[in-house]
Every structure is written in C-alpha cells, then in structure tokens.
Amino acid sequence: MIKIVNIGMNHETAPVELRELAAFGGHNIDEVMNAISSIKDIKESIVLSTCNRVEILFTTDNEKGGTESVIDFLCRYSQISREKLLPILYIYNDQEAIRHIFRVGASLDSLIIGEPQILGQVKEAYRIAVDHKSSSVILNKLMHRTFSLAKKIRTETEISGSAVSISFAAVELGKKIFGDLEGKKVLLIGAGEMAELAATYLVHNRVDKIKVANRTFRRAVEVADQFHGETISFEEIGDQLLYIDIVITSTASPEPIISSDQVKKAMKGRKNRPLFFIDIAVPRNVESRVNEIENAFVYNMDDLKGIIESNLSKRKNEAVKAERMVDEEVIKFSEWLKTLDVVPTIVALKEKCKKIRQIELKKTLSRLGNLTPEQRKRVEDLALSITKKVLNDPIVFLKGKENRSSRDLYLDITQKLFNLGSDNENTNKKSYK
C-alpha cells in the first residue's frame, strides 16, 4: 500500500543554526532532487526549503525503509549526527502528512500565521519537482488540493487581513530599537520579495533614505527606483556601514555577506553611534561574531518571534475557521487516496474485458459478412455498452469499500474470480511509477 510521509524541521523544532545546515539552496537543488529520487523506496518526492523550514514530502510502499533512507540522507547532507538530528525532526504519515502540507500551504504552520510568501514557496517547490519528474499522480493531486485550499482560506477568512510578515516584523523591530524610524538611513542587502516588502513598510515609517544592494545590480536598481532610493554595489557595502543606521539582509548567499572585520572597521568612524543588523536570511548573512562588537547589534529570524507574537491575536481567531476547512479537505483527500488501492484491480479488470470484447467482436464480425460501416458501428457499440454495464456494479462496489480488511478481501476475490493475476501486477507497476 502506498504511504505518504513528510519528514522535516521548522522554526518550532530546530534553531536557526541547525536549519541553515540542512537548508537546500538553489545552487544544489538538482543534486538534492536527484539524490532523493534515487532512493529505491521512494516513488514520488517534493523538497521544500525556506528560511523557516526544511521538509521532504514523499510517497513509498516501504514506509520504514523510505523513512530511514531520507533520515540518512539528511544526516549526510547537513553533517548533523543522527543523535542530534532525530530530536529536531517531525515525521508525519498519511492523514497527518496530508494535514501538515495543507496547513503549510495555507500558512497555518508559519512563524507568522497568514503570511503570503509560503504559498509561493510551496508552488516553487512543486514546480521544481515537476521539472525533475519526481512528482506524479498522488503528489500532483495533493499539491493542487493544497493550492486550491489555500486560496479558499484566504478568500473566506481574514487570516491574512492584518499586515504582518517577516518583513513587517523586521521593521517593527527597527521601531522598537529607535522608537521612531523617521530620518533613519536603511540599507537593504538583497532585493527579493521580503526586501521589497520591508522597503514598503520603511517608506510608510518615513525613513530618510533607503539604499539597496543586490547581486543582480539591475534588480537592485528596480527596487531602489520603486522607493526613490539609491543603489549601491556589493563592493560598497563596507564603506556604507559608516553612515547607515539599520541594515536588513535577506539574500540567498550560502556564506555571510557582512563580516566582523567590516563592522569593526566601520564602528571606528561612527563615533559610538549604534548600528543595527536585522538578518532575515537563512543561512545567516551576518557573521554571529558581529554581535560581540560594541554598539553593533544583530537580530536574526529567531529574535523576531517575540515581535511577531503581538500581531497574531486576530489571525489566530481566523485560524480556527481555517483549521476546520483543512480538516474537511483532509477527509476528502483521504477518501480519494483510498480509491487508489482498487485502481490496479479495476484497470486490470477493464483491460481483460476490453481484450475479450475485441476478440469476440473480431470473430462475430467475420461471420456476419459484408456489413455497412453503420451496421458495423452498431455491433461495436452494442458490445461496448454490454461491457460497461457488466463492469459498472463491481467497480462501484470495489470503490465503495472503505474498510481496509474487507476491501483487501474483495480485491483478492475479484482478482481470483477474473484470473487477473499477472495483468494486475503489471498494472500496479504502471500505476505507481
């Protein structure tokens, strides 16, 4: 029987320093996808890696073997020992795995409930899986249900009604640090969606100037122009630290962008003016040693949790409605999943009847002599109609068997009665590749 399994870690189970060791970046995603797809017990797989979570969602007909292989892979990839990795992992099976991915897509499992970025990240993870041909019948269906459910929840609840996000929390932290952001100078390092959102909030809080640095200079120019800011190159970052009040980093760089040496040099010319870094990237963009420098303060993703909690009360109320909608969809998807057990037998039964019909039609039509095309078609239609009507009752009966033990019994009886044997075995192989 095919099982759905989700193995991962998130902001609740693992600290940022462990999450960043396990994070899958764009530079190695092909290697990761190929490695997971090559595990013999895995049928389908999708990998999700964000600043707050790392997950591997997969289907298998050997739950124990598939689970152990994925855990072994995570140990090798992250260089985290098994003893240290197991306590920070969650492992969900079947309905719980289905519920979990529904909750992730609907942003019910996010650091900030209702934040919009996660759905786009789930869609991107699915796109990558499709490109690598690692997602098939079951996960395709699961992902499309996830997307439609997330849309329904956003439409029918107020879960995204108040303006909170990682970027919003970063700006709120800046306000707590300075009391007022008016007149402050801000440097955004990274020009992705989170940086753009942060810039929007900063403008609303009347900062004096926004400067933007990005690996792709053209993208930095686009974001800077949008907010009447200024673009700088990566090479200028060290010099700019002399004049900036707040640095917000959100790049995908696997290595730190800001070094302690750069900050030490800048602090000498700042005349004791504090410099605040809000690092919302995973892996972290600012070396942890920067926090040891006098008047330099670094806040990372984990530090934002307290800020975020104060913005969640309204969304938590709406989340109750959303959780009910998730539960309803879990039941529906589980019912669909149960029908997959009978699919190979039904396909084999249909194929056998089709072959019998074709053989008998050939015999009958050869005996009837010269028929007109219309007469020939009527005979073929009659044979097809009889086949469909004979098959209808057993197919409906098999699909309606919800109890696992009775379903297996009737599947076995059907296979023996119609001598499906090898045909059914072949169909099984085709259905789950």
Verbal overview:
The chain has 433 residues and is of the alpha/beta class. The chain is built from 18 helices and ten strands. Helix 7 (137-156) packs antiparallel against helix 14. It is elongated and about 105 Å long. The model is unreliable at 423-433 (pLDDT under 50).
Strand percentage: 5-15%
How helical, in percent, are the residues? Answer: 55-70%
Q: What's the CATH C level of the largest domain?
A: Alpha Beta
Query: Class by helix and strand content?
Result: alpha/beta
SSE run: EHHEEHHEHHHHEHEHEHEHEEHHHHHH
Helical run tally: 18
**Which strands sit side by side, in order, in the main sheet?**
7-6-5-8-9-10
The CATH architecture assignment of the largest domain turns out to be: 2-Layer Sandwich
Q: What is the molecular shape?
A: elongated
Q: How does the major sheet shape up?
A: 6 strands, parallel
- Would you give the CATH topology of the largest domain? Beta Polymerase, domain 2
The gist of it:
This protein has 433 residues and is of the alpha/beta class.
Question: How are the secondary structure elements laid out?
Answer:
Elements: E1 3-10, H1 16-22, H2 29-37, E2 42-49, E3 53-60, H3 63-78, H4 82-85, E4 90-93, H5 95-105, H6 117-131, H7 137-156, H8 166-178, E5 185-189, H9 193-204, E6 209-213, H10 217-226, E7 230-231, H11 237-240, E8 246-249, H12 260-268, E9 275-279, E10 296-299, H13 305-309, H14 313-339, H15 343-367, H16 373-399, H17 404-417, H18 421-432
Parallel strand pairs: 5-6, 5-8, 6-7, 8-9, 9-10
Antiparallel strand pairs: 1-3, 1-4, 2-3
Helix pairs in contact: 5-7, 5-14, 7-14, 8-9, 15-16, 15-18
